[in-house]
Amino acid sequence: MPREKPYIKSNRQEIPAFAGMTSDAQPVTGNRQPVTVRVAVVGGGPAGMAAVGALAAMHIGVDWYEKEDRVGGKLNNYHQLFPDRVPASEAFGQLVKGTYHNHIDRHLGKAITSVGVNAGRISLNGKDHKIGEADAVILATGFDFFDARHKEEFGYGIYKHVITSADLETVFADGDKLLNVNGSAPASVAFVHCVGSRDEQVGVSYCSRLCCITGIKQAIQIRREYRETRVYNFYIDMRAFGRGYEELYREAQENHGVRFIRGRVSEASEDEQGRIRVKAEDTLMSRPIKLTVDWLVLLIGMSPSCSAVLSGKGEREKSFTNAENPLTGSAVKGQPGVFLAGCCAGPMSIPESVASGRSAAVQAAEYLNKKNGNSE
Amino acid sequence: MINTSRFTRHVSRKSGMIHYWRDYQKEIAEDEFFYVRSCIRQNFFPGAENLFIDILRNKLGKKVFEDADHTTCTGIGYHSDIVPIETTMTVIARQFALMKERGYRNLVISCVTSFGLYSEILDLWKHDPALKTKIEGYLSEATGRSFDEPANMVHASDILYKFRYEIAEQAVNRLVNNETGLPLRVVDHIGCHYAKTFPERGIGGSEFPQVLTGLIKAWGGETVDYPERRHCCGFGFRQYILQSSRGYSISHSRTKLESMMPYEPDLIVANCPGCAMFLDRWQYTLEETDGSVYGPGRTKIPVVTHEELAGLVLGYDPWEIGLQTHQVPVEGLLDKIGIRYDPEKKYADRQGKLIGDTVAVTAIV
Given Cys at both, which of A140, A375, B11, B291 links B15, Cβ 3.0 to 4.6 Å? Predict the structure, then answer.
């Protein structure tokens, strides 16, 4: 269901030409040096934005495809970014600035469903027709949120007060209130970590990496808004790996009184008042616990959305796509000229996605130089 | 206040349930059933299985066969660790052989424990064909028989689910309060072994099963979704079979009963004989222990099985289908629905002679 109103109003107002800009629009920056090669970038999220900016800065022509009618990807629905709580709109503004360049043609509302490699040319295809061609392509198709309905025991989609971290982010972003069933501040909110991560039961063995810090950030946000609300985080183990993440974890406990309980939630159900009853195990205390909360927030993991583009296969064929040499590069094995950027290669934070996008741009440039016999 | 319905992935309660149910549907044969009885159902609820067969044969016009040579599946012994799994497999292979010899391919299982065990064994054979070959050898050596796996294997409640609308068309009674005209509030309880082991083998899966909900709604009632809906009834073989552990059994039943109490349910329906037994009998025990009762107006909550519920809807005489064998008296429920019954015949045999009296029953030590 499309959102009725974009919450990042400021971006749309300040840069009105952005959403509808095409190759005919006036360039914002960049010289008029003709370009001889073109790279396609598929995806308009942070990795895609970083990649197109870097390519244009290297005087490479870019065809930028985004399936939605605006770029920004999931960043458009975020409120604040961890660990510094920078508004998502601010990060978006910084990233999008680099994409105003006369070497960049934007193709909004164009969904690329498959990519073909033939005699050094890349064809980009829609559902039933060819959309474009390029000398190389950077896939920055990002990720999908794990569909929490697959964890049936939590009742997402059935119990009104069970929501996901993505839902909660839109609540914050829209300035809405997370009230209890009586319309007052919630007495308690619980977060469930690893919903669709590290869970063989739903076929997800990997760690989505960012859910822990998302849970910490959102728990703090609730405590800042509602000082009387008790906030619980049920976790397997905390994976606060990034810059400032561990510090934020400590801050959540020491300054905001967020309660962290080591143990998985086994089941959620609804009581007669519409509150959510949670059954879990506290593995540090070695005892089962039951808790009734006003809201249950499922910290959903990341699901791949990339290999369907590569293979043209259906939804069920998806998996994160491995680069040929994932330690040192992002080129895709057996697909010369195809590079990966951002979360289509695996769960990444926004700074990692940005770095990945820029790295893929450099690797694409190196590939084209080599292909064209230019050793420089 | 936020409007949760606008969330991208948030869906209404109804559509959320439909999403779950869409993933958990299964093929149920149309006719020609080989029916295997349950050790405990025919003891706890002696009218239920004959009633099921009668409904299939005489109300729905189906062909049903039951074999006098059928035996226990060993389920209780298996779950109590006194029967080795190879023995259990060979016994179940023999049931399959009986079905083959009688020319049937569609197996209908009365007991939820058996249904879970049959499912488990078919799954083990699927993943370890050599094990199946070994069991084929054991069966051949012991009995000279051979078997085929069922083409279609379902629980008896699945059959009623499949034909719930046909039963509704013939309904004499509906699950509606005769005085108020409101739907009866029905707690549906699904046996753990029906779908918790293999969710894909249960209609509606394991978390929000549809199988009994489907019956209740088709016959005019409404279901009660209470917090401990998915909790075990308290049977739990080890909890009950070991006398020293029976406190665990009754405490789990109490957890459920306390949880459903605020919703004032008119009745409980269960598709597992063990569940129906313990939710029924333990209400008596709890009242005797501390005076607790869990139904509206300080009454106990009647408990019926899926066959008995169908029987009431189809207008069978309550005493003909064995409702007098329940611990919690069912008269209150019969009055609510408006089912007429003869109180004098509650404990009468077929010749009208009284064969039992609650007053005469004393504590059995």
Answer: B11
Residue A125, classed as helix, strand or coil, is strand
Q: Contact B13/A277, CB-based, under 8 Å?
A: no
Give the predicted TM-score (pTM) of the model. 0.86
Nearest chain A alpha carbon to B8: A1
Q: Is the pLDDT of residue A1 over 70?
A: no
Parallel, antiparallel, or unpaired: how do β-strands B267-270 and B185-189 relate?
parallel
In this structure, are residues B90 and B142 in contact, taking their beta carbons and an 8 Å threshold?
yes
Strands ordered across the beta sheet of A61-66:
A104-108, A61-66, A38-42, A136-139, A338-340
Q: Measure the CA–CA gap between A364 and B246, rounded to whole angstroms.
A: 70
Q: Which residues of B326-355 are buried (b: 16+ CB within 10 A; e: fewer)?
A: bbbebebbbebbebebeeeebbeeeeeeee
Q: What is the pLDDT of residue B237?
A: 83
Give pLDDT tens digits for A140-189. Answer: 999 999 999 999 999 999 999 999 999 999 999 998 888 888 889 999 99
Is B227's CB within 8 Å of A269's CB?
Answer: yes
Question: H or E segment at B131?
Answer: helix B129-143
Angle between helices B85-101 and B112-127 (to 10 degrees): 100
- Rounded CA gap, B279 and B236, in Å? 12
Query: Structure tokens of A215?
Result: 């849970």
Q: Tens digit of pLDDT for each residue in B71-86? A: 999 999 999 889 999 9
* ipTM entry: 0.84
Ordered by where they begin, the domains of chain B are 33-156 (1.20.1050.140), 161-364 (3.40.50.11810)
Closest-CA residue of B relative to A275 is B227
**CB proximity A302 to B under 8 Å:** no
Q: Say which residues have a Cβ less than 8 Å from residue A187's Cβ, sequence separation at least 6.
A: A180, A228, A229, A230, A293, A294
A152 touching B (Cβ < 8 Å): yes
Q: Which of A3, A153, A272 is opposite residue B207, by nearest beta carbon?
A: A153
How many CB contacts within 8 angstroms connect chain A with chain B?
82
Query: How wide is the angle at C-alpha A184 spanned by C-alphas A179 and A189, nearest 5°?
Result: 45
On whether any CB of chain A is under 8 Å from the CB of B10, the answer is yes
For A270, which of B9, B17, B227 is closest by C-beta distance? B227
* Partner-chain contact B9 A147, CB within 8 Å: yes
Amino acid, single-letter form, for residue A273: Q
Collect all residues of chain A within an 8 Å Cβ-Cβ radius of residue B260.
none
Does B8 lie at the interface with A, CB-CB under 8 angstroms? Answer: yes
Which residue of A170, A271, A277 is in closest CB contact with B7?
A: A170
